[in-house]
Amino acid sequence: MNFNQHVDRREYPSLKWSKAFLAEHFGNEEAIPMSVADMDLKAPPAVIKQLQKRVAHGVYGYEYTPDSYFDALVGWYQNRYGWQIEREHIEPSPSILSAISILIDQHSNEGEGVILQPPVFFEFRMIIRSNHRRIVKNPLKLIDGHYQIDFEDLERKASDPNNKILILCSPHNPVGRVWTKTELEQVEQICKRHDVFVIADEIHGDFVFSPEKFVPYLSIAGGENRAACISPAKTFNIAGMVDAITIIPSEIHRRKFHEFSHRYQINKVNVFASVATEAAYKDGGEWLDALLAYIQGNIDVIKKHLQQNDTGISLIEPDGTFLAWLDFRKLGLDPKALDRFLAQEAKIALAPGYWFGREGAGFGRMTIGCPRETIKRAFDNLATAAKQPGR
Ligand SMILES: Cc1ncc(COP(=O)(O)O)c(C=O)c1O
Is the pTM of this model over 0.90? Predict the structure, then answer.
C-alpha cells in the first residue's frame, strides 16, 4: 500500500485526466485534474491479485454469481457496520444511477416531485429530469461551517402529496457530511409519515473518519418505502469495472424492481466485477483503514496550508468521503471569474460548486483521493494565484 505512488492514468482513457475533458470543462488541458470523483490510487493488492488470477484463467464465459460473492458482501456490512443484509433483499444493477432511475420510475409518476438536498451530486438532477419528474429542493443549511438538514423544510416538502421520493445522499457528496443515527431517524420519521419513498445512495458509505460512524439507512427502524444503493466502486477505486447493488427489504417493491431488471436483462454481474467485489469485501478491510488514514492526512495538509497562507479560502471540514468542499466566497468572485481563477490562474480543475445546484455557488469540490504530492501542488498553486498583484 503505497498511496504516495504516482500512477500514470493517461496510459488509459481516464475521464478525469483526459486532455479533451479538461479543455472542454476548464479551458486548460494542463490543469491538475481533481474534478471527477475517482481516486488516482491503485486498488487493494488483494483485488489486483484475484483479477490477475482470473485473467490468467483465459476463459470468460457465462457464470453464475457464486455464494462466496454474497457471503463477502453480507460479511463486510455485518462486520464493519453491524448491518445484517438479507441475501434475498439484494438486487444487482449496472450502476447506482441506473438503480435510482428505476426506483424513481417505479415510485412516482411523470410530473411528480423528487426531493433533493442541494448542494448535491449533480447527476441526480439529470436523472430526475430524464424521468420527467420535478426537482424539489430541500437545501442543506450551512451553520457555523457545518451543513445540516433543514427538517422543517423537509417536513413541508414531504407533506405535499405531489412529492413522492427523497434521494438521500449518505454520506453526502459534495459537502462530506456523515449523517448521524438521530438525523437519519428524523428523515425516516418524516418520510414515513408522508409516504415519501426514500432512496439512500450510500456509495460513499465506507469513507467515514473516526469518531463519526456510518449508519446504513436500512439499519434504522422504519417503514417499507425505502431502498439503499450500495457499491464497492468508490471504496476500492474500481468504479470503471463494478456494478452496484440495490437493497430492497419490501417484497412488493423488490418484486417490481426485479421484474424490471429481468425484463431488460440488466441484472447480470460481470465476471470481473464479481471477482473484484468478492476480493475487496473479503480482504480489503486493512487497505481501507490505511486509505482512510491517508485521506485524513491529506485533509491535515490542506488545513495546515490554509492556516499558513492567508488566501481567504476555507475548507468545510468533512466527516467522511474523499472530497474536499472548499469555500471561495471570500475571494468575492462571480462564478465565471472563480472558474477562471481556479483553472487559468491556479491551474487546478475542481468541480465548480454550482454544478451541485445554485446553493453551491462560490464553492468548489476537490477530489483528494490522490497522492499527497498532488494536494500540495494544488494548494501551492492556489496560494500563488491568490497572492497575485491586484487580488
Ligand atoms: C453520490 C453518488 N452516487 C452515484 C455515483 C455514480 O455511481 P454509478 O457510476 O454507479 O452510477 C456517484 C459518483 O460520483 C456519486 O458520488
Answer: yes
Q: Are 99 and 253 in contact (CB under 8 A)?
A: no
Task: Give yes or no for residue 270 having a pLDDT over 80.
Answer: yes
Predicted confidence at residue 180, as pLDDT, reads 98
Does the Cβ of 100 fall within 6 Å of ligand 1?
no
pLDDT of residue 380: 96
- From-to residues of CATH 3.90.1150.10 in the chain: 9-44+286-386
Closest CA to 216 of 117, 75, 89, 81: 81
Is 134 in a helix, a strand, or coil?
strand
Span from the CA of 391 to the centroid of ligand 1 (angstroms): 36
- The DSSP output letter for 229 is E
Domain 9-44+286-386 coded CATH 3.40.109.10: no
Give the span between the Cα atoms of 241 and 379, in whole angstroms: 31
pLDDT 10s digits, 240-268: 998 899 999 999 999 999 999 999 999 88
Architecture of domain 62-282: 3-Layer(aba) Sandwich (3.40)
Counting atoms of ligand 1 from 1, which one is nearest the CA of 97? 11
Q: For ligand 1, is residue 201 a contact (CB within 6 Å)? A: yes
Instruction: Give the residue among 226, 202, 229, 227 at the shortest CA–CA distance from 94.
Output: 229
Who contacts 58 (Cβ-Cβ below 8 Å, separation ≥6)? none
- Sequence-distant (6+) residues with CB within 8 A of 94 are 243, 244, 266
In terms of Cα–Cα distance, which of 74, 29, 102 is closest to 263? 102
pLDDT single digits (tens) 75-109: 999 999 999 999 999 999 999 999 999 999 999 99
Domain with CATH 3.40.640.10 in the chain: 62-282
DSSP 8-state secondary structure symbol assigned to residue 43:
P
- Decide whether any atom of ligand 1 lies within 6 Å of the 95 Cβ: yes
Side by side, the strands of the sheet bearing 363-367 are: 314-316, 323-327, 363-367, 351-352
